[in-house]
């Protein structure tokens, strides 16, 4: 059975610290993140964790003989059923270590795929996870594939009835990939129709992006009142959640309406299989009129996390000319001195706002920042329509683009607020 179907599997997390690698992160913070990843998967009981310093990885077993003996004793003593390696593990290393240690082993990619499988909620998300998992497992071919017919319930990385013939496995994977691609093509086509329908709505799209666990879903919930999963857990949100909301206005009237999108959190060293598979899931970011980059400013490596987010957005092809706001969230966790430093830094930076999505501190400033960010998305113009252009006038009112109108001797003088797409559509009428 898959990981998510078990109950109370005892796990131990290891972060290999290899000096020759080009790393920006402190090993202890990387280990903390790996432990958080483990906690994000139901059915695991994390018994402990360690940083393992390696002069060089052993090609066949990753660790040296002495460390393997030490780990074997640990597995027996703590009754560990799963070792989680925060890094890549080759198929040969995995098989040898499982044999030496007498327990299952999962690397960082496998764990993240398991979490994605457990979290994916939409049909497209499930299909994308399954395809990513198959692409990953095709290089390994170390498990039976009876679980592949299931749509949910874990990916089976840590279970399965045993070895099967490699060729039979490969055929099973390839056949399943073909079926999944066909299903995904249909789903993507449907999403394209939905996206086209949204393009006709005169509301800017505001996308919340950020490192996983930065507080995007908490902010989304505060703004929309939606019951989106917002736990202190990595990858709490996997599929984009979208809501149409009216921003608070000045005075008694509501402000402009926007479509707010909450997206999957980014993470360092995201498996290449998932970067490709979730490109469509993150397409709301590429279509956004305003990107709000939410950061956990209280995290010791907030700068490194921000760099990862920017790198992934660049890989997604997010246009540099799309307006962006950077929100430094979780200021409620800062000391008075650190908060003063953060305020000073934010004041000197462009488009940086301080916020606590938990307490609501800074929310009014944030909303005003969003209002200013989308102000450039629409423009206000004066047009004159003759009495014979009733169809165009009706279209403007139907789309909610009319700000004001006066009737003259020759027709209507109309104040319109629209974006470039709506203006182009108007001129085709």
Account of the 3D structure:
- This protein is α/β, with parallel strands linked by helices and 429 residues long.
- It folds into 4 domains: 3-108, GTPase HflX, N-terminal domain (Rossmann fold); 115-196, no CATH class; 201-375, Rossmann fold; 379-426.
- The chain has helices spanning 27-39, 65-78, 91-101, 108-119, 123-138, 166-199, 216-224, 272-277, 283-286, 302-315, 336-348, 363-375, 390-398, 420-426; strands at 9-17, 44-53, 82-85, 104-107, 205-210, 241-246, 257-262, 290-296, 324-329, 352-354, 379-386, 402-407, 411-418.
- The strands form 3 sheets. Strands 6-7-5-8-9-10 form a 6-stranded mixed beta sheet, with helices on both faces. Strands 2-1-3-4 form a 4-stranded parallel beta sheet, sandwiched between helices. A 3-stranded antiparallel beta sheet has the order 11-13-12.
- Strand 3, helix 3 (91-101) and strand 4 form a beta-alpha-beta unit.
- Helix 4 packs antiparallel against helix 5 (123-138) and helix 5 packs antiparallel against helix 6.
- The longest helix is centred in the middle third of the chain and has 34 residues, at 166-199.
């Amino acid at each position: 059975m898959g990981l998510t179907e078990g109950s109370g599997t005892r796990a131990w997390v290891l972060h290999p610290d290899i000096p020759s690698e080009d790393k920006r992160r402190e090993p202890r913070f990387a280990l903390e993140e790996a432990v958080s990843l483990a906690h994000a998967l139901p059915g695991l009981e994390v018994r402990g964790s360690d940083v393992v310093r390696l002069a060089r990885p052993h090609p066949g077993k990753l660790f040296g003989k002495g460390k393997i003996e030490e780990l074997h004793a640990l597995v027996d003593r703590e009754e560990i059923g799963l070792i989680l390696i925060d890094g890549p593990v080759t198929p040969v290393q995995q098989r040898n270590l499982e044999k030496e240690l007498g327990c299952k082993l999962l690397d960082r990619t496998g764990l993240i795929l398991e979490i994605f499988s457990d979290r994916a909620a939409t049909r497209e998300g499930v299909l994308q996870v399954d395809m990513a998992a198959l692409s990953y497992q095709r290089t390994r071919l170390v498990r039976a594939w009876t679980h592949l017919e299931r749509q949910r319930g874990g990916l089976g990385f840590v279970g399965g009835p045993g070895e099967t013939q490699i060729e039979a496995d490969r055929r099973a994977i390839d056949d399943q990939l073909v079926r999944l691609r066909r299903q995904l093509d249909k789903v993507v086509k449907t999403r394209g129709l939905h996206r086209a329908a949204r393009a006709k709505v005169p509301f800017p799209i505001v996308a919340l992006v950020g490192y996983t666990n930065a507080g995007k879903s908490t902010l989304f919930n505060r703004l929309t009142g939606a019951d989106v999963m917002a736990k202190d857990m990595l990858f709490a949100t996997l599929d984009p959640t979208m809501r149409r909301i009216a921003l608070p206005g000045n005075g008694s009237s509501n402000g402009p309406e926007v479509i707010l999108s909450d997206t999957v959190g980014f993470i360092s060293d995201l498996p290449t299989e998932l970067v490709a598979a979730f490109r469509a899931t993150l397409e709301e970011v590429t279509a956004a009129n305003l990107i709000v980059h939410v950061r956990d400013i209280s995290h010791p490596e907030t700068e490194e996390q921000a760099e990862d987010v920017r790198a992934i957005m660049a890989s997604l092809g997010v246009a540099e000319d799309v307006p962006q706001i950077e929100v430094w969230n979780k200021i409620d966790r800062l000391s008075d001195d650190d908060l003063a430093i953060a305020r000073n830094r934010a004041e000197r930076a462009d488009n940086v706002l301080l916020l606590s999505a938990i307490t609501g501190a800074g929310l009014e400033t944030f909303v005003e920042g969003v209002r200013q960010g989308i102000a450039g998305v629409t423009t206000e113009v004066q047009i004159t329509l003759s009495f014979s252009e009733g169809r165009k006038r009706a279209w403007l009112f139907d789309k909610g683009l009319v700000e004001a109108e006066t009737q003259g001797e020759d027709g209507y003088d109309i104040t319109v607020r629209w974006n470039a797409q709506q203006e182009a559509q108007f001129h085709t009428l």
